[in-house]
Design goal:
The chain has six helices and no strands. The chain is mostly helical. α3 packs antiparallel against α4 (about 70-90) and α5 packs antiparallel against α6. The N and C termini lie far apart (about 45 Å). The mean pLDDT is about 90.
Protein backbone atom coordinates (compact mmCIF):
# COMPACT_ATOMS: atom_id res chain seq x y z
CA UNK A 1 0.00 0.00 0.00
CA UNK A 2 1.37 3.41 -0.97
CA UNK A 3 1.17 6.38 1.33
CA UNK A 4 -0.53 9.46 -0.06
CA UNK A 5 1.72 12.42 -0.81
CA UNK A 6 0.47 14.38 2.19
CA UNK A 7 1.60 11.61 4.57
CA UNK A 8 5.00 11.33 2.88
CA UNK A 9 5.45 15.09 3.05
CA UNK A 10 4.44 15.14 6.71
CA UNK A 11 6.77 12.25 7.51
CA UNK A 12 9.65 14.19 5.91
CA UNK A 13 8.75 17.31 7.90
CA UNK A 14 8.58 15.29 11.12
CA UNK A 15 11.97 13.72 10.39
CA UNK A 16 13.54 17.16 9.88
CA UNK A 17 11.84 18.55 12.98
CA UNK A 18 12.96 15.51 14.98
CA UNK A 19 16.59 16.20 14.14
CA UNK A 20 16.12 19.88 15.02
CA UNK A 21 14.56 19.14 18.41
CA UNK A 22 17.12 16.42 19.12
CA UNK A 23 19.89 18.99 18.66
CA UNK A 24 18.10 21.49 20.92
CA UNK A 25 17.77 18.83 23.62
CA UNK A 26 21.44 17.91 23.22
CA UNK A 27 22.35 21.60 23.65
CA UNK A 28 20.22 21.83 26.78
CA UNK A 29 21.92 18.76 28.26
CA UNK A 30 25.42 19.83 27.17
CA UNK A 31 25.17 23.30 28.71
CA UNK A 32 23.56 22.06 31.90
CA UNK A 33 25.58 23.02 34.98
CA UNK A 34 25.12 23.70 38.69
CA UNK A 35 23.85 27.25 38.19
CA UNK A 36 21.30 26.12 35.62
CA UNK A 37 20.11 23.44 38.03
CA UNK A 38 19.56 26.10 40.71
CA UNK A 39 17.69 28.31 38.23
CA UNK A 40 15.55 25.37 37.13
CA UNK A 41 14.76 24.32 40.69
CA UNK A 42 13.85 27.86 41.70
CA UNK A 43 11.58 28.67 38.75
CA UNK A 44 10.12 25.52 37.19
CA UNK A 45 6.81 24.30 38.60
CA UNK A 46 6.72 20.53 38.14
CA UNK A 47 3.14 19.91 39.40
CA UNK A 48 1.59 22.62 37.22
CA UNK A 49 3.61 21.64 34.15
CA UNK A 50 2.64 18.00 34.77
CA UNK A 51 -1.00 19.09 34.57
CA UNK A 52 -0.34 20.89 31.28
CA UNK A 53 1.51 17.82 30.01
CA UNK A 54 -1.53 15.66 30.74
CA UNK A 55 -3.64 18.24 28.88
CA UNK A 56 -1.41 17.85 25.83
CA UNK A 57 -1.65 14.05 26.05
CA UNK A 58 -5.44 14.29 26.22
CA UNK A 59 -5.43 16.53 23.13
CA UNK A 60 -3.35 13.97 21.23
CA UNK A 61 -5.66 11.13 22.19
CA UNK A 62 -8.70 13.26 21.35
CA UNK A 63 -7.42 14.10 17.87
CA UNK A 64 -6.52 10.47 17.26
CA UNK A 65 -10.09 9.58 18.26
CA UNK A 66 -11.45 12.30 15.91
CA UNK A 67 -12.60 14.55 18.75
CA UNK A 68 -11.35 17.80 17.22
CA UNK A 69 -13.05 20.18 19.67
CA UNK A 70 -11.59 18.31 22.64
CA UNK A 71 -8.17 18.33 21.00
CA UNK A 72 -8.41 22.08 20.46
CA UNK A 73 -9.52 22.70 24.04
CA UNK A 74 -6.79 20.65 25.70
CA UNK A 75 -4.12 21.75 23.22
CA UNK A 76 -5.08 25.34 24.01
CA UNK A 77 -4.84 24.65 27.75
CA UNK A 78 -1.31 23.34 27.23
CA UNK A 79 -0.21 26.33 25.15
CA UNK A 80 -1.76 28.81 27.59
CA UNK A 81 -0.05 27.00 30.45
CA UNK A 82 3.34 27.30 28.78
CA UNK A 83 2.71 30.98 28.20
CA UNK A 84 1.84 31.44 31.87
CA UNK A 85 5.04 29.65 32.84
CA UNK A 86 7.08 32.01 30.65
CA UNK A 87 5.53 35.01 32.39
CA UNK A 88 6.32 33.58 35.83
CA UNK A 89 9.89 32.80 34.82
CA UNK A 90 10.40 36.30 33.46
CA UNK A 91 9.08 37.70 36.76
CA UNK A 92 11.73 35.61 38.54
CA UNK A 93 14.42 37.15 36.33
CA UNK A 94 14.95 34.11 34.12
CA UNK A 95 15.32 35.44 30.58
CA UNK A 96 16.89 34.26 27.39
CA UNK A 97 19.94 36.44 28.07
CA UNK A 98 20.15 35.56 31.78
CA UNK A 99 22.47 32.60 31.24
CA UNK A 100 22.73 29.24 29.57
CA UNK A 101 19.69 27.86 31.37
CA UNK A 102 17.49 30.72 30.16
CA UNK A 103 18.90 30.57 26.65
CA UNK A 104 18.51 26.83 26.19
CA UNK A 105 15.19 26.62 28.06
CA UNK A 106 13.45 29.38 26.12
CA UNK A 107 14.88 28.21 22.79
CA UNK A 108 13.86 24.59 23.29
CA UNK A 109 10.43 25.18 24.81
CA UNK A 110 9.77 28.25 22.67
CA UNK A 111 10.33 26.33 19.46
CA UNK A 112 8.02 23.63 20.75
CA UNK A 113 5.44 26.27 21.67
CA UNK A 114 5.68 27.73 18.15
CA UNK A 115 5.22 24.31 16.57
CA UNK A 116 2.30 23.65 18.91
CA UNK A 117 0.69 26.96 17.99
CA UNK A 118 1.06 26.20 14.28
CA UNK A 119 -0.30 22.69 14.82
CA UNK A 120 -3.26 23.94 16.82
CA UNK A 121 -4.00 26.51 14.12
CA UNK A 122 -3.96 23.76 11.51
CA UNK A 123 -6.25 21.61 13.62
CA UNK A 124 -8.68 24.52 13.92
CA UNK A 125 -8.53 25.31 10.20
CA UNK A 126 -8.49 21.83 8.69
CA UNK A 127 -10.38 20.03 11.45
CA UNK A 128 -8.69 16.68 10.83
CA UNK A 129 -6.52 14.80 8.39
CA UNK A 130 -4.21 11.82 8.70
CA UNK A 131 -1.14 13.98 8.09
CA UNK A 132 -2.26 16.54 10.64
CA UNK A 133 -2.84 13.83 13.22
CA UNK A 134 0.70 12.59 12.55
CA UNK A 135 2.03 16.10 13.16
CA UNK A 136 0.08 16.57 16.38
CA UNK A 137 1.31 13.21 17.67
CA UNK A 138 4.84 14.43 16.92
CA UNK A 139 4.14 17.59 18.98
CA UNK A 140 2.92 15.45 21.89
CA UNK A 141 5.85 13.02 21.69
CA UNK A 142 8.41 15.81 21.43
CA UNK A 143 6.95 17.46 24.50
CA UNK A 144 7.28 14.20 26.46
CA UNK A 145 11.01 14.17 25.64
CA UNK A 146 11.35 17.85 26.61
CA UNK A 147 9.36 17.32 29.81
CA UNK A 148 11.56 14.39 30.76
CA UNK A 149 14.85 16.17 30.12
CA UNK A 150 14.00 19.69 31.25
CA UNK A 151 11.55 19.13 34.08
CA UNK A 152 11.91 15.64 35.50
CA UNK A 153 15.70 15.55 35.25
CA UNK A 154 15.93 18.98 36.89
CA UNK A 155 14.19 17.65 39.99
CA UNK A 156 16.07 14.36 40.31
Amino acid sequence: MMWPREKIGMAMLILAESVFFFMLIVAFVYFRDESSMKAAGATLNLPITSFYTVSLLVSGIALWRARVEVALLFGGIFLAGQGTEYVLMLRHGVTMSQGLFGTTFFTLTGMHELNGLIGLGLVAALRRSAALTMYWQFIVTTWLAIFGVVYLWSFL
